[in-house]
Design goal:
InterPro entries: Rhodanese-like_dom (IPR001763), Rhodanese-like_dom_sf (IPR036873), STR4-like (IPR044240). Pfam families: Rhodanese. With 138 residues, the chain is α/β, with parallel strands linked by helices. It is 27% helix and 16% strand. The chain has one domain (5-133): 3-Layer(aba) Sandwich (Oxidized Rhodanese, domain 1). The strands form 2 sheets. It has a 5-stranded parallel sheet.
Length: 138
C-alpha cells in the first residue's frame, strides 16, 4: 500500500495551517533534533511528534508503529499525518508503514528538514528550514 503522496515543505505548512486535525511527525534521530533543530508548529497550534525511525547507529526502531499509534491517539480518522526527516527518505518509509497500518492519509515531506547534500556535500540548501518555515533549536 502506498502513502498519499510527496508534498513540498510549503504544501505541508499549508495543510498544517488549514487543517486543525493535521499533525507533523519528525522521524529523525534524537541527535538530529538536538543539533540541527526541529520544525516549530506552535504558531498554528498543531502537534508535532518526535519518533525515531532509526537510532544513532542506523538500527531501525522496532517500536516505531506502536509509538506512532500511541502518539496519534484518538485523532480523527481522516486527519492528515505529515512525515518529515532530514531529506525525505526515512519519512517516505514511515509514511508507507503508517498507511499499511491504516493511518491515512499519510504524506512524505520532500527534501525533509534540510535536504540532501549539494555539490559540495553540504546540507541546508533545500527543505523546511531553507524555505523559511518556522523552526527552533530543540
Amino acid at each position: 500500500m502506498n502513502y498519499a503522496g510527496d508534498i513540498t515543505p510549503e504544501q505541508a505548512w499549508e495543510i498544517l495551517t488549514d487543517n486543525p486535525d493535521a499533525v507533523l511527525v519528525d522521524v529523525r534521530t534524537e541527535g538530529e533534533w538536538a543539533t540541527i533543530g526541529v520544525p516549530d508548529t506552535s504558531s498554528v497550534e498543531r502537534p508535532s511528534h518526535f519518533i525515531e525511525w532509526v537510532d544513532n547507529t542506523g538500527a531501525r526502531n522496532p517500536e516505531f508503529g506502536a509509538e506512532l499509534a500511541k502518539a496519534l491517539g484518538d485523532r480523527p480518522e481522516d486527519a492528515p499525518v505529515l512525515f518529515i526527516c532530514r531529506s525525505g527518505q526515512r519519512s517516505a518509509h514511515a509514511a508507507n508503514l503508517a498507511t499499511a497500518a491504516g493511518i491515512a492519509p499519510s504524506y512524505n515531506v520532500l527534501d525533509g528538514f534540510e535536504g540532501g547534500p549539494d555539490a559540495f556535500g553540504q546540507r541546508g540548501s533545500s527543505g523546511w528550514r531553507a524555505v523559511g518555515l518556522p523552526w527552533r533549536q530543540a
